[in-house]
Amino acid sequence: MRYRLDDIATFLQVVDSGSISAAARRLNLSKSVVSKRVSDLEAALGGALLQRSTRRVLPTDRGLAFYERGRSILRQLDEAAEEVAEGDGDLRGALRVAAPMSFGTLYLGPVLFDFARRHPRLALTLDLDDRMVDLAAQGYDLAIRITRPRDSALIARRLAASRRVVCASPGYAAATGLPRSLAELPRHEAIGSAEAPSTWLWQFEPFAAGGPPRSVAMRSRITVNNGEAARDAAIAGLGLTVLPTFIVADALREGRLLPVALDAEPVADVIHALYPQTRHLSRRVRALIDHLAESCGEAAPWEQGLSFAPAERRVS
After folding, report:
1. What is the pLDDT, as a whole number, of residue 238?
2. pTM of the full structure
3. How far apart are CA 311 and CA 316, in angstroms?
4. Which residues 6+ apart lie within 8 Å of 267 measured at CB?
């Protein structure tokens, strides 16, 4: 039986990507090369590894078993190579990072690319998608999530708070006025999110520490599935929105949006770096997490120049 590591790595990428075309784009190879590598591997192993269709490929039972073992073995080989190479002090190897779309494009991308520039022997893959990925099964080294960690199989390191703010355009404020309390919020149109279950119930800090958040039911004529689209709909004067400050910071600084002064703050999320529990966390992953934590600092850098008066001092 003869096979090549490149063939195995390509097969793993096809399974991760869900199609030959997507794997070819990620590997920067032609579809014909990717297809041939998988076919060569199937011939070497003596059986089909993939079920092919016009739109998607899925692993066969044999292919899934080989995928799970192959992913683990290649990761161990990669870790072994890194340990041997650690003596020269250089970071090398592959890093796969998953992150939400808006945070990735507005803030995370430049931070990661600066890290890649400092370490030219690293191969970085950044996948931006708002869906939750299975880090271990899909071969990711790290994921950035803006939520509260739920998966006990993952280790989380807090990077920063993700504050949220209710805001509206100056035009909307002039036409309808702005609410000054949670009780007034339901009288206003809201920009809804198709992705977030909290769209219809905006959550605000509790009356007392440790208590349940206060929820306000909002109605939405405009519904979108992306934070930047929600921001733009609010800028267009179509209603109120509640969004993370990293999405609306520039619009607030430039006066295209106004913060809405209420008697309570929206419940904040937390930005975490998550990684699978393994016996050995690679040096490059540790270095990247430290770089991300340093870039966030004590105060979120995207909030520089923004100030929000405490809620209890905003209501007259």
Report:
1. 95
2. 0.71
3. 11
4. 164, 203, 204, 205, 213
